[in-house]
Inverse folding.
């Protein structure tokens, strides 16, 4: 499986990002934290956490619970046994923090029949709001453009999911449009926002370690 990551999302990359913290008066403020993280193939020990996204409503956090999807959970287990969740057309990688903890996953899949790819991400709620989602998608973009002859990457999210929209914009994605009533979650149809990044578009670099946010 190691060969699947050569060309690599790679080496440990440093980021300095902000963490949301509650101040004494209850208001939210941000502070700078520094993380080192990398993308790598999903390990067997992480499969249970992946499967829980589809089988345990308390686990995936905001924006990610779409009801019990047991067939999808079984498919993840089957695919892991078959190819480590890295196939010719699609794939999933774990986000690992410097301390070895599993923070979430990124994935990619064909964008219709275009030959281009759509990306996705899930960060566990305990790791959100401190730059992990931004850095993971930055590394994924670099990995995909380095290892596949793809011209365009795309991503979509709900119109209220500001964190994902900001993360995509930080990475370099351009907002391309809104599709009304696109997805159903938590009892409502919700508008979707769509983003694209072309191979030659400007892309983000990692924040310097001494960045103040
Ligand atoms: C969306 C998601 C990947 C973002 O990852 P994250 O690690 O929480 O995000 P980051 O800490 O990198 O923050 C990204 C940006 O959003 C902002 N942000 C973070 N949490 C926020 C919140 N709760 N409300 C508003 N803005 C927020 C950050 O300030 C940052 O913006 P900035 O660079 O302008 O400061 C993560 O929250 C997640 O996994 N959510 C559930 C699954 C999901 O929504 N996937 C994507 C669409 S399907």
């Amino acid at each position: 499986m190691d060969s699947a990551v050569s060309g690599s999302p790679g080496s440990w990359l440093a980021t300095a990002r902000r963490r949301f913290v509650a101040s004494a008066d209850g208001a939210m403020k941000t502070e700078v934290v520094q993380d080192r993280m990398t993308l790598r193939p999903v390990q067997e020990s992480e499969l249970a956490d992946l499967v829980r996204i589809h089988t345990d409503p308390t686990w995936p956090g905001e924006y990610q619970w779409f009801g019990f999807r047991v067939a999808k959970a079984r498919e993840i287990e089957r695919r892991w046994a078959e190819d480590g969740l890295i196939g010719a057309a699609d794939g999933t990688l774990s986000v690992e923090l410097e301390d070895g903890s599993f923070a979430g996953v990124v994935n990619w899949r064909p964008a219709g029949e275009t030959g281009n790819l759509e990306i996705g991400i899930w960060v566990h709620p305990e790791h959100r709001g401190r730059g992990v989602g931004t850095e993971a998608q930055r590394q994924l973009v670099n990995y995909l453009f380095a290892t596949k002859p793809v011209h365009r990457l795309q991503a979509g999210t709900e119109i209220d999911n500001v964190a994902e929209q900001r993360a995509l914009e930080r990475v370099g994605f351009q907002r391309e449009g809104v599709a009304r009533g696109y997805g159903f979650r938590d009892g409502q149809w919700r508008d979707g926002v769509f983003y694209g990044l072309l191979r030659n578009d400007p892309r983000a670099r990692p924040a310097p370690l001494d960045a103040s946010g």
